[in-house]
Design brief:
By secondary structure, the chain is of the alpha/beta class. The protein has ten helices and twelve strands. The strands form two sheets. Strands 2-1-3-5-6-4 form a six-stranded mixed β-sheet, with helices on both faces. It binds NADP nicotinamide-adenine-dinucleotide phosphate (NAP).
Length: 281
């Protein structure tokens, strides 16, 4: 029997997850369907429960519900500290009791793209992370566990960056000199080996106020926004950095969800290549 999966969000029509999972299923011979599920803003949990009551096996969760999904699911692994869940798995035990487990695969998706696809190790590196929303919460723990020399978070609303850095220092017991938060204006002439844009600025062709000299020698600039040349990526290329958009992260986080649900790892490279070709039109 075909197992049902979907991505749930509001809005959700733009999501690229259905074609990605269709390609994974084709590759691996898994008998699944994967649709888009629009949840009313005030009825996320009810929509999830109905989907599972009707036989659904798993959901990816996108904006604006990742925190709400974390609140009502049984968070596992790195989702616990992330306060955000982007993959839900539904199981029943022998007595028929249902359990909804919550995972965060964004962080592992980013790491697989950085290390595996882009050949960029993080140990001993100076990392700048822009943004303090759900995406940043999702990637902080995996980044920290790679033992960078320093991880600085900058955000337009400084208070949110300070809270995020303090949260992960507490959760992971890391010292202030390794994880800190700053305002963009306080970056001065600091240089970084990896600059990650986890803001949504690129979606509206906006540019976070980064100083020009922020890229160290051989720096990598990574924008989580996918499928477009954002102002940040143009700025980074002009500053001599190597650039990458978030297509690889998108496909790698989907592959990790697929693995959690099906126990099979799809081949991500051809799917990344396909999305890149589609984005170029
Ligand atoms: P979010 O929770 O809404 O947070 C948005 C962040 O962007 C906030 O820190 C916000 O700063 C900042 N921001 C927005 N406009 C800005 C501007 N013009 N200048 C400077 N900062 C700005 O969103 P999210 O869930 O963290 O997602 C962020 C981005 O990552 C989205 O574009 C999403 O599509 C992308 N993403 C990609 C993947 C992938 O697989 N490739 C996965 C997850 C997320 P304030 O706090 O000051 O408002």
């Amino acid at each position: 029997m075909t197992d049902k999966y979907a991505v749930i969000g509001n809005p959700v029509a733009h999501s690229k997850s259905p074609p990605i999972h269709a390609e994974f299923a084709r590759q691996t011979g898994q008998d699944i369907s994967y649709d888009r599920l629009l949840a009313p803003l005030d009825a996320f949990e009810a929509t999830v429960r109905k989907f599972f009551d009707e036989g659904g096996k798993g959901l990816n969760v996108t904006l604006p519900f990742k925190h709400e999904a974390w609140r009502f699911s049984e968070a596992q692994g790195m989702a616990i500290g992330a306060n955000a869940v982007n993959a839900l798995k539904f199981e029943r035990d022998k007595s028929g009791r249902g359990k909804i487990s919550g995972y965060n695969t964004d962080g592992i998706g980013l790491l697989r793209d950085l290390r595996g696809n882009l050949g960029c190790g993080l140990e001993g590196k100076r990392i700048l992370l822009m943004g303090a929303g759900g995406a940043s919460y999702g990637v902080m723990e995996p980044l920290i566990r790679e033992q960078p020399e320093r991880l600085i978070v900058v955000n337009r609303t400084l208070g949110k960056a300070l809270s995020l850095a303090a949260h992960f220092r507490t959760v992971l017991g890391v010292a202030q000199q390794n994880i800190s938060a700053l305002a963009y204006a306080a970056l001065g002439d600091a240089q970084f080996d990896i600059v990650i844009n986890a803001t949504s600025a690129g979606l509206s062709d906006a540019m976070p106020p980064l100083p020009a000299g922020v890229f160290g020698p051989d720096a990598l600039a990574y924008d989580m926004v996918y499928g477009k040349m954002t102002p940040f990526l143009r700025f980074a290329r002009a500053g001599g950095a190597r650039i990458a958009d978030g297509t690889g992260m998108l496909v790698e986080q989907a592959a990790e969800s697929f693995y959690l649900w099906r126990g099979v790892r799809p081949d991500t490279a051809p799917v990344i290549e396909l999305l890149r070709r589609q984005a170029q039109g």
